[in-house]
Fold:
Amino acid sequence: MMKKLIALFFAVFVATAAQAQEAPDAMVQRVTEDVLDIIRKDKDIQSGDTRKVIDLVEKKVLPNFNFTHMTALALGREWRKASPQQQTQLTDEFRTLLVRTYSNALTSYKNQKVVYKPLKMAATDTDVLVRTEILQPGSKPVQLDYSLEKQGADWKVYDVVVAGISLVSNYRDQFNQEVRNGGIDGLIASIATKNKSQDNGPAKSEKK
Amino acid sequence: MIDRFGAPGNRLGRRWLLAGLIALASGCVLADEDGDDPYESFNRAMFAVNEVADQYAAKPVAQAYDSATPLPVKAGIGNFFGNVGDLWIGVNNALQGKLTDAGSDLGRLLINSTVGIFGLFDVASELGLEKHDEDLGQTLAVWGVGGGPYLFWPLIGPRNMRDTVTWVADSYADPVWSLHPIAARNSMVVVRFVDVRASLLPADKVIEAAALDKYSYIRGAYQQRRRNQIFDGHPPRLED
Structure:
């Protein structure tokens, strides 16, 4: 009898503890639905207002990303050769670039449906892949996966994979090319230039 | 306009081209690692040609098609060409030993060609028969044939040596390419080309925003996507 009671107590305890921290797939779903909901209601975003999407992404999406890890992953081996200050600068510039890219992708959103695949993970896992799929009539479903890692109690995204293409490691060649030509500072400068060109860039005028 | 070889595609010519490519490929396919780009300067030149052709011809046509065609029509066209490809997808699944998938592809073809009215509606997907993505290049990769050097072709885009050769074979197996009369075949090929190009329009914007160097961004994306297709969406993790 006592044994059963203790077992029950533990079961309840474990269940509440698990509820206290959000599972990675639940987090991905919550943030995605949140953002898509806002886009569906916002006429400005639908007509291509990049500024507004960027704000939305910065507020809702950014807090769930680990940009330092993303930048390290994009750069590969060279990351350890960069000074702490260079690492910070690089992360800042890369963050801006990724936010632009992600925001741009979101302005093309037109009522596609997102399907969330069930996640198999052990309680001890600290690195998982959450799989989703974008459905649109007349085309093959597009695979959209998120790599997440556990940081303290929270899960943070460190890679986004579209149709098997990692948006982060797809920078590896380009980054190494820039480092070969002008060192880490050269790389920082060229990302900064890219970001500036988009400030006054054509992204906004190209309405869909 | 778009015979995919840029030349009048009579069967004999294509056969010679295929033979030539296989001879050319057999020398290097097995030798090179995936991801090598030994012909980079040539590829970059082809890439530049393609960019111009795309900017002045393919993209404007695709944009016009995209804005003039209502979504249900676009979906119908996409479904139609999807259905036409399902038989060859099934054959490749069978060649890779995935018999259940092959059976499902055959089922898709039967259902969509009949209930789905010549493939215009993808009824099979609604019934839970998932659309697959296979071609001969993936089959050879599963059999252990390496990709060989990376190449960039005008109009058909990025393809390594293996996938270039198998692409020729894929078009042999493609019902659209065997259509008669030739005029009907050509218009079908053009419509499909425009439809595919239009489906890539949203990606254009993203690549423009993302890439420091568009050529190598696309090369990396091609290589990763191919690897993902070969492993049916579950590629093993690469260590850094």
